[in-house]
Write a structure and sequence with these properties.
Blueprint: H1 2-15, E1 26-31, H2 36-49, E2 54-60, H3 62-71, E3 76-79, H4 85-93, E4 98-112, E5 120-121, H5 123-131, E6 148-152, H6 157-165, E7 177-179, H7 182-190, E8 195-200, E9 209-210, E10 212-213, H8 220-225, E11 231-239, H9 244-254, H10 256-264
Parallel strand pairs: 1-2, 1-3, 5-10, 6-7, 6-8
Antiparallel strand pairs: 3-11, 4-8, 4-9, 4-11
């Protein structure tokens, strides 16, 4: 909850510095709520070192960020998934050339209320639960309680990645409660003993319990080795090669100092070359 209010305060503060793409020297960043803590931490440090920089930041989901890149209302689209072929084709038709930069690695962690006795779920069990085929915790070693399925909404890159890595393209049960951000899922699960949700690794806190998947706990080591089965890259997309202040900021994110902040925020820094 503290992170949520910190995000609101920081976003509001950053918007003071400039709020529109195509305004001279102003940089606009929009998109993924998973990438948001990384963007916030690195942007705070970058603007402290570059007090004249005019950069604004907001969330809204990966899909919204990429949409904004295509329509020219953002300079950087944060995304927790790769751009889709249809999005890329639409961008090209409008003279936009999406260029991806991998900025971090993430593990998507299934979470439950701390009072839930379940500690591990297999990929197949998660698949069956999110399709609505397993509906009671007793079917996966828990209490005789109905499972409250909580999912991200369809504009989320985390939703897309979960759909690919866990659901294998199957549809989420219509009974799932949809949430607009990682923080909202944490809050919902922390208040509901019967709930199951999923979040980016950096959002895991003491108010919820992270489950292992196929007996493997999500960590920097298991995400890098891909032993943890629900891992993915995190991206920043620009229109072609980044230039000016945009390039300087992205270079900072990729620097040793920027990657140290990635780790501090609970995500996995890129392996050193």
């Amino acid at each position: 909850m503290k992170r949520f209010f910190k995000q609101l305060a920081l976003v509001a503060a950053l918007w003071v510095f400039g709020a529109g793409a195509a305004i001279a020297d102003n940089v606009v960043i929009k998109g993924s709520t998973t990438v948001l803590p990384i963007a916030q931490a690195t942007l705070e440090a970058f603007m402290k070192a570059n007090p004249g920089a005019k950069i604004s930041l907001s969330g809204g989901g990966s899909g919204e960020g990429i949409k904004a890149l295509i329509d020219g209302s953002t300079d950087i689209a944060n995304s927790s998934r790769e751009i889709k072929k249809t999005e890329s084709e639409l961008a090209n038709s409008k003279g936009v050339n999406p260029m991806e930069t991998v900025v971090a690695i993430d593990a998507i962690v299934p979470i439950v209320n701390p009072k839930n006795s379940v500690k591990n779920l297999s990929l197949d069990q998660l698949n069956q639960i999110y399709q609505g085929k397993i509906t009671n915790w007793k079917e996966v070693g828990g209490e005789d309680l109905d499972i409250v399925v909580i999912s991200r909404d369809s504009s989320s890159g985390t939703f897309e990645a979960w759909g690919e890595l866990v659901l294998k393209g199957a549809k989420v049960t219509p009974r799932a409660q949809l949430q607009a951000s990682n923080g909202a899922i944490v809050q919902a699960v922390s208040k509901n003993k019967y709930a199951l949700g999923y979040i980016g690794l950096g959002y895991l806190d003491k108010t919820v319990k992270g489950l292992s998947v196929n007996g493997v706990k999500a960590s920097e080591k298991t995400a890098l080795s891909k032993e943890y089965p629900v891992s993915r890259f995190l991206y920043m997309y620009t229109n072609g090669e980044p230039k000016g202040e945009t390039a300087k900021y992205i270079q900072f994110v990729l620097s040793a100092a920027g990657q140290a902040l990635v780790k501090k925020e609970g995500f996995v820094p890129l392996p050193k070359k």
